[in-house]
Amino acid sequence: MKMKILPKETTSIFTRDGIRLDADIYRPDAAGEFPVILMRQPYGRAIASTVVYAHPTWYAAHGYIVIIQDVRGRGTSEGEFELFAHEIEDGIDTINWAANLPGSTGEIGMYGFSYQGMTQLYAASAKSPVIKTICPAMIGYNLYTDWAYEGGAFCLQTNLGWAVQLATETAHLRGDEQAYQELYQASKNLPLSTTIPALPEVINEYGKDSFYHQWIENYQPGEYWQNLSPNMKNVDLPILHIGGWFDTYLRGTIHLYKEMAGRSKFLQKLIVGPWSHIPWGRKVGAVNYGLGASSFIDDIQILWFNQFLKGINTGIFERSPVSLFEMGSNEWRNLNSWPSNNYKFYYLASTGLANVREDSGSLTQSCPNISADDKFVHDPWRPVPALGGHATFPAGSFERSELDCRTDILTYTSEFFKEDLHIAGDISVDLHCTADTSSFDLSAVLSEVTKNGNVYNFTQGYIKVIDNNLPVTICLQPTCMKIQKGNAIRLSLSAACFPAYIINPGIDKSPGEVRLIDSKIITITVSSGKNYPSVISLSV
């Protein structure tokens, strides 16, 4: 039975270096002591991630002290906001304070998604004994490979959009109306056609100290990213991992889950729904996945916290540790582990016109002895646009048959299946390809093709190729998908997916050095057949 709630209490703590951090506390109106669940976030604590979660009062009514805190330099908290720089120390100071609050049992859990998921990892990395469990959703574990860059390519739209959002909030906190207005307008229509597309004037003017400039400068993996990313290598505690098939940070969620599941002595549970970053509902893109796709994360988190903060047997251990929503059947699949040991292979074959005719490029289960090369031309004047997927707005699945008619997209389509095909887990594409420049990009989109010719994407990947290293492996977003009997699958290849990723100018450069005028027309050749087996690997 839910409890009554006391009026919200606003209070503060002072960090070890004397910075005041403000928080709202929601308490049950009942006698006794209660565990604490904590969220630390940068968007103004009143929001409390209610874009995807129930309001904190809902959690408090289940017998928890709920704390929503503004991180340093955000909301009404003091200090300068510096991306992820203070989240370990500030997180531990907050946790130690929360454990000693009047009415607290001293048992701490954390929840939240995106930045609020990252603050959990940083706090947990300090190995405080009072943190009993965390529930990170949609996080970047390795901030280079799982967040800022994909396959070495700069994730332009999501990174720039986020930088503009944070700069807008900074202007709001400072009362700078002009900056706020210009940034707000930029957020509604990202300025992507400036001299240097990755560095529009608005972010140079109003985000001089932004993390964004550092992310652009450090365009290769290295010490910067190693120091910035949370280090969970010596941490072990029960974790509820939450992701979405169309979330731009799914790579990080799966990365952390695989690492923890491989070594933890505690329960690691993974839930992945057919969701984008926001919202977590039944419809994403153009596809309605049914009522079963609606979020149940609040309910599962209460069961999780009851188990690990209150010691109540909630049946969590009897549930399957991996729950994946299967698109197509629109049903949840419960597994004992991440699917990884059963693959089907589909080889590319062509008559040489896979960019012109959809019946020229094919996918076959046996490698063809003879197959013609396919050539296509990437023109930066009219780059292939992003449509759905995980790296653009709006995300999700869309009908893309018109897009696939472009001659700068190669398409390879299987025969229509005589029985259902169930895909679950990791997907990659190995391609034998060359270009007439030292660097080029490849976008790979996997779609379901219906009998009437409609084409709906369900996963995709991207890579920046340097020095024509062969073969090229593109890791697509993991997925769980049922291809209906009577339908087919299609691989679509192009050299751009704009503005999800910055356009490759034909040479390896920092995104901050890529000028619009420097972009080159690039001719790319994709080879297939016995001597150059280009192939899709599907986990089924």
From TrEMBL:
<dbReference type="InterPro" id="IPR008979">
    <property type="entry name" value="Galactose-bd-like_sf"/>
</dbReference>
<dbReference type="InterPro" id="IPR050585">
    <property type="entry name" value="Xaa-Pro_dipeptidyl-ppase/CocE"/>
</dbReference>
<dbReference type="Pfam" id="PF08530">
    <property type="entry name" value="PepX_C"/>
</dbReference>
<protein>
    <submittedName>
        <fullName>Peptidase S15</fullName>
    </submittedName>
</protein>
<dbReference type="InterPro" id="IPR029058">
    <property type="entry name" value="AB_hydrolase_fold"/>
</dbReference>
<dbReference type="InterPro" id="IPR000383">
    <property type="entry name" value="Xaa-Pro-like_dom"/>
</dbReference>
<dbReference type="InterPro" id="IPR013736">
    <property type="entry name" value="Xaa-Pro_dipept_C"/>
</dbReference>
<dbReference type="Pfam" id="PF02129">
    <property type="entry name" value="Peptidase_S15"/>
</dbReference>
<dbReference type="GO" id="GO:0008239">
    <property type="term" value="F:dipeptidyl-peptidase activity"/>
</dbReference>
<keyword id="KW-0378">Hydrolase</keyword>
<feature type="domain" description="Xaa-Pro dipeptidyl-peptidase C-terminal">
    <location>
        <begin position="302"/>
        <end position="537"/>
    </location>
</feature>
<dbReference type="InterPro" id="IPR005674">
    <property type="entry name" value="CocE/Ser_esterase"/>
</dbReference>
